[in-house]
């Protein structure tokens, strides 16, 4: 079985797919997106405000995975089980999940608002010791990106 690292696209492959999707949008007039949690700092300026750069890690924040046996996890790529729906209600399990402190890449500690990026994919941080796509946003990109997220109501202003 391949590890998460072996089965993940490289930075270059992600950028190539992103650029191909953008070209498809422009040529065919169709909306495209990447639903994986890829930190916005990976994307070049022309893609930074595209929807594909606006997916923070949702593991245990607004999604969970439920197995056929009722086991609840924060993410399909994370192994911890937080309860079983056959034994207790989702509200109880969700409260337990909300008490979990997400593993964050140290590069990202002060980069983005906490409710958004969280430093990329937690499973990759755990597998590799770092998020393979993180390079950090320069101040100019970060300011514009955060303003765009607030405008789209994906995060809320700190004011």
Short key terms for the protein model shown above:
globular; mainly alpha; single chain; 159 residues; 3 strands
Please give a structural write-up.
The protein is mainly alpha-helical and 159 residues long. It contains 5 helices and 3 strands; from the N terminus they run H-H-E-E-E-H-H-H. The protein starts with a helix and ends in an 8-residue tail after the last helix.
Tell me the total number of β-strands: 3
Low-pLDDT residue intervals, each spanning 5 or more residues = none
Largest sheet: 3 strands, antiparallel
Rg from Cα: 17 Å
**Please, what is the average pLDDT?**
77
Short synopsis of the structure:
The protein is mainly alpha-helical and 159 residues long. It is built from five helices and three strands; from the N terminus they run ααβββααα.
Secondary structure elements and their pairing?
Elements: H1 4-7, H2 11-28, E1 65-66, E2 71-73, E3 83-84, H3 90-98, H4 122-128, H5 139-151
Antiparallel strand pairs: 1-2, 2-3
């Amino acid at each position: 079985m391949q590890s998460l690292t072996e089965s993940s696209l490289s930075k270059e492959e992600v950028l190539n797919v992103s650029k191909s999707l953008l070209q498809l949008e422009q040529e065919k007039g169709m909306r495209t997106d990447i639903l994986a949690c890829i930190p916005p700092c990976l994307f070049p300026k022309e893609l930074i405000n595209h929807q594909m750069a606006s997916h923070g890690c949702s593991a245990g924040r607004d999604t969970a995975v439920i197995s056929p046996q009722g086991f609840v996890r924060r993410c399909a790529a994370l192994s911890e089980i937080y309860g079983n729906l056959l034994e207790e209600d989702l509200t109880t399990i969700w409260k337990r999940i909300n008490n979990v402190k997400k593993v964050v890449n140290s590069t990202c500690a002060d980069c983005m608002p906490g409710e958004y990026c969280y430093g990329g994919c937690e499973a990759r941080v755990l597998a590799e010791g770092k998020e393979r796509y993180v390079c950090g946003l320069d101040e100019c990109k970060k300011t514009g990106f955060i303003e765009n997220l607030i405008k789209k109501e994906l995060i809320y202003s700190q004011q």
